[in-house]
Design a protein that fits this description.
The protein contains 8 helices and 7 strands, in the order H-H-E-H-E-H-E-E-H-E-H-H-H-E-E. By secondary structure, the protein is an alpha/beta fold. The protein has a domain of 169 residues: Vaccinia Virus protein VP39 (Rossmann fold), CATH 3.40.50.150. The longest helix has 17 residues. The structure holds S-adenosylmethionine and prephenic acid. The site of S-adenosylmethionine has 21 residues, from helix 3 and strand 2.
Length: 247
Amino acid sequence: MSKESDRLFAQPLPLVQDFAFNEAVVRVFPDMIKRSVPGYPTIVENIGVLAAQFAQPHSVLYDLGSSLGAVTQALRRHVKSEDCRVIAVDNSSAMVERCSEYLHAQDSMFQELLPVEVIEADILRLEFQPASLVALNFTLQFIQPAQRLPLLSRIRQALLPGGALILSEKLRFNDAEEHALLTELHIAFKRANGYSELEIAQKRSALENVMLPDSLEEHRERLLAAGFSKVVPWFQCLNFASLIALP
Ligand SMILES: C[S@@+](CC[C@H](N)C(=O)[O-])C[C@H]1O[C@@H](n2cnc3c(N)ncnc32)[C@H](O)[C@@H]1O
Ligand SMILES: O=C(O)C(=O)C[C@]1(C(=O)O)C=C[C@@H](O)C=C1
């Protein structure tokens, strides 16, 4: 994995452009996401552990918005079911290229890993195969709000009985005081991880138009509207959470 540290927003920018998953972000992404998302390493590793409970023999496991394949690698470390394969999908060519390199490196270090296919595609246009596990790890928040329910409905249709969707997201809160407190504590988390006030402010304005978080209540209602029968939060750290949705 790249050890380059994230300094993308360290200097004053004349114009802060909308955040994009481009080559510059790819180079620093492992450092950026670990220092920005409280609980990220715990979430990723445990998606592997949870997936092992839901994976069905002879089925597909999807990692949607796979970035550099951290979730895919965890799935391959933990899932032992017979004849499963992982499909990792991202629409950033820079991410897909580097993700494939990392997965080749994982192949050379371990034996008997699940086979994996990395696809450069828009998950809104993907034809889903019958799947026992779908992971959306901090991806739905980057999908246009109007597209979120149709996407979740298609995922629900593709899920096999006994399977699950694991959905991790940054949350917003309907209660203004709760929202303000957890936002302030998230900023403290970033500060403690070495980000300056300037870096925090410029990143916030870069994300403003492209990352649109929902509340836990909105997630629950939308998942039920998409046809899921049960929504179980299994992790929350500050304003970041992960849910299990059962078909
Ligand atoms: C925050 S990152 C996900 C992190 C990753 N799942 C992990 O656990 O390390 C969001 C990813 O979603 C991808 N993405 C956003 N919209 C997408 C779409 N419509 N189709 C496919 N990928 C998309 C971005 O390119 C980016 O790599
Ligand atoms: O909310 C923030 O400030 C973030 O940096 C969050 C977040 C995310 O949740 O995906 C945004 C962009 C990067 O991918 C890493 C982290």
